[in-house]
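We read letters as residues; the fold follows as tokens. A sample entry reads:
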Amino acid sequence: MAYKEKTDWLPDDPITEDDVNRWEKGIKEAHTDLAAHKNDLNNPHGTTKDQIGLANVENVKQASKAEFIRHVDDETIHITADERAEWNAKETPSAAQDKADRAEENAKTYADQTFTNEKLTVLPDSEAIQDARTAGSEYPLGITLMDIGQGNKTGYPLSYGFVKNEKRSNYRFTQYFYGTANETGDYYYNTGTWIRHWWNESGWTQWEKISGFAHTNIGTTGRQGLIRGELQKIKFNRIIKDSHKLFDTKNNRFKASHSGMYLVGASLYIENPLQYSNFELYVYKNGTKYKLMNRFIIPSPKDNSDSTEFHATVTGTVSVPLDEGDYIEIYVYAGYSGTKTRYLMDSDGVLNYFDILELGGRNYPNM
């Protein structure tokens, strides 16, 4: 039952127990209604946004104070004014690519208009230095190519080819010569590559061959008698291989076309009985004994009979430095006892051979 007030009290009206209880009940009901009103979150009075000034505020979740503090203190997601200015100065990927494309196109245009192959590397015939004896200081700077006409005899390794010059200064200059054969028949012995250097104080170094090396392998034909007690030249006359046509079968000699180091090997298979024998194998250079290659000795047996057959083989390999035009030959000394003449046997290139391999390099002077 709702509280019913009494508003007609007079000064002399007695206050009864019922009156006090009614007052206490009214106070309790008032407190109960007030508490219920405070806990009512459903807008019991129907208040609108316009009435409290929230008409323009969106209904979104707000961060708590703790969340707000964490956001403010986060140095990773925030940038400084200097960082912002630096970032703003950077280009976008598309703008950077456009600029790169324009730079590339400009470079191509400039190169096409300024640096043609002819201007950059190839000297015209009128400017090519045909005389290899010309000082290195006379050459232009940079990387240049020159044609060397056929039949040139002025100091280039071959009479026909072209030259590449790599010159940074008069103190930094290297020159290459490339032989280019102009006929099918002389392809092998008119090709190769050489290098030399220019020293401003002392001039050009010797040409040093670095490719296109010669290889010669020569055998024998028939038997060759070996005269007792004499050094005699072996008649190598059967060409098995001669890459650069450097072997003369009439004179049984190899002639160097260019200076350098050569590896020389030789082998002889000799008919010989079991008697005293001394065979010495030599390489001769320009007609003079140069190096011993091998020596084969059979001491005198107790029985000097000529009947026992005992063939001998002498073989060896040595290095020989040669200058252009030098020649080499193979000689053997035959010392023996008994009445039988010793013979170089008629054999193939497996047992009798004269083998020369050009190693390249230079023939440095003796000390």
Observations:
- The two ends are 140 Å apart (CA to CA).
